[in-house]
Amino acid sequence: MSCNRTRPPLTFVLLSAMCLLLSLPAGRTLAALTSHDGRIYNLTPAAGRFLVATPAMRGNYFRETVVFITTHDQRGTTGVIVNRPTMLAASDLFPTRNPVPIYEGGPVLPTVASVLLASQHPITPLRPGGISYLFGTFHVLRLLAGSTPHGGEARIYFGYCGWAPGQLQSEIARGAWYVVEGDRSLVFDAQPDWLLARLLRRVHPFAAADAFLQLQADMPRPQALR
Questions:
Q1: What is the pLDDT, as a whole number, of residue 105?
Q2: Whether residue 167 sits in one domain with residue 56
Q3: What is the mean pLDDT of the chain?
Q4: Contact 169, 51 (CB under 8 A)
Q5: Parent domain of 27
Q6: Residue 98 φ/ψ, nearest 5 degrees
Q7: Could you read off the pLDDT of 139-179 as tens digits, one per residue?
Q8: In a designed cystine with 149, which of 85, 153, 182, 223 is the match (CB 3.0 to 4.6 A)?
């Protein structure tokens, strides 16, 4: 897997934001410009949806992350980060030739593997959007030993994200996350480094540009420019 990772250029982000703004009905455009945080859609957390980190997460482990929610109920919330690929594939760590890519899934149990599949699996129900989730290295090994879908239809994650009951809702209320409708094609997208910008464009017209400018402001400048 290539280690070259590029970020969307500023012109692309700004043009995309303007195109989205122009495509919105007048009332929704006004709401996007006048809302305190620019949010157009105010979804609640649910399995199968995305959590998209806001600029408020700067300096945090979850900075610039996109989390796919795998469970959300009275016991809490779990999910995996879907835009932090590693340079490894399954064939680098497991006795298989399968090139399923490996991701950093989150800070909880970072040595335990799980997998998302773009298909039905007998031992787990489908999540909304037609995605199966198997937790545990044992299940991953069994899956790889069988007729596992190849890289375009599966992702392996080490570690996961977890929130106690009410914890995620509290973070959302503080402006730490946007909740965006799930999209199976984005979970298995071949360019995960662009996922944050793509989802931010669905939140409100200027969110992607805001995030890009925040990132540029945080990057260290050459000594001659200081």
A1: 98
A2: yes
A3: 76
A4: no
A5: 8-40+204-219
A6: -70, 125
A7: 888 878 765 554 458 899 999 999 999 999 999 999 999 99
A8: 153
The two structure tokens encoding residue 179? 């909740």
Residues 117 and 213 occupy one common structural domain: no
Contacts of 158 (CB under 8 A, 6+ apart): 102, 103, 104, 105, 110, 111, 112, 113
CB count in 10 Å sphere of residue 142: 13
Q: Given a cut of 60, is residue 77 above it in pLDDT?
A: yes
How far lies 158's CA from each of 18, 64, 82, 99, 224, in Å? 37, 18, 11, 16, 40
Question: Do residues 187 and 133 both lie within one domain?
Answer: yes
CA distance 157 to 116: 8
Q: pTM for the whole thing?
A: 0.73
Burial group, residue 61, by CB count within 10 angstroms (0-12, 13-18, 19+): exposed
Q: How far is CA 8 from CA 57, 143, 167, in A?
A: 20, 35, 32
Rounded to an integer, what distance in angstroms lies between the CA atom of residue 140 and that of residue 80? 15
